[in-house]
Amino acid sequence: MVPIMAAVTIILAGCTQAQLIGFLPEDSVGATNHTDRTTGLWVTSWIVLLAVGIVTWGVIIWAAVVYRRRKGQTGLPVQLRYNLPIEIFYTIVPLILVIGFFAFTARDQAAIEEVEPDPDVQIEVYGQRWSWTFNYTDEDVYDVGIQAQERQDGTAGFDTSQLPVLYLPVGESVEIKLESRDVIHSFWIVDFLYKKDMIPARSNYMYFVPLKEGEYDGKCAELCGEYHSQMLFKVKVVSREEYDAQMELLRDKGQTGTIGEEFNVNSNLPGTGVGEEE
To answer: pTM value?
Structure first.
């Protein structure tokens, strides 16, 4: 065991930063209180799976070389119907791996999904074909975006200056309530290494603490129609002072209150009251 760990340590010491985090986005390192946990689970899983692969490939190559047909040999080799030790081995080892992966995944998922009973910031996000509405519920202001627009200078890509922007204060706990106005969408902040579906007539929640100021890309991760690829947004993690200034700017624009269910397309879903007998 010690030689194996030493070999792994030496190998990892020569890895680049991208390799050390399993080729996940480099800006994800320390982005939230959950990203390093996710990265650890990802990288450790690949190390274990790579070790299993090396052993498996080694045994296959060894068997192919040692038991290959030699010159002058004819007929079939001795046929073995059962080998109890080998059968126990290839049953127990995969079972241990599956249980191990499940246990560590369940542990990390429980930590990531843990409800924050008293978040510092509460935001309601609506996904709609093909853009976003951000309700800063504890500030009583909102912002509504449009779908990504192609650049007007003839170059490929989208004009990022027109993308809707979600503002988050650094170092404060955030609750995001996820809703959909029409079809299933998926709220994904790429560098936060987490996504969650937005399902019509059902509320989902995300809890995290952004730890690094900066600008991050967001998008819909669920195919939702013709312009799904243009359902983009930006996330800006800023200081509390800059966050408050942005909230005040929305108030100055008259964007007070919230944009809620009144614009949902699926007005006949259960629980909306439409078409229900009194």
So the answer is: 0.83
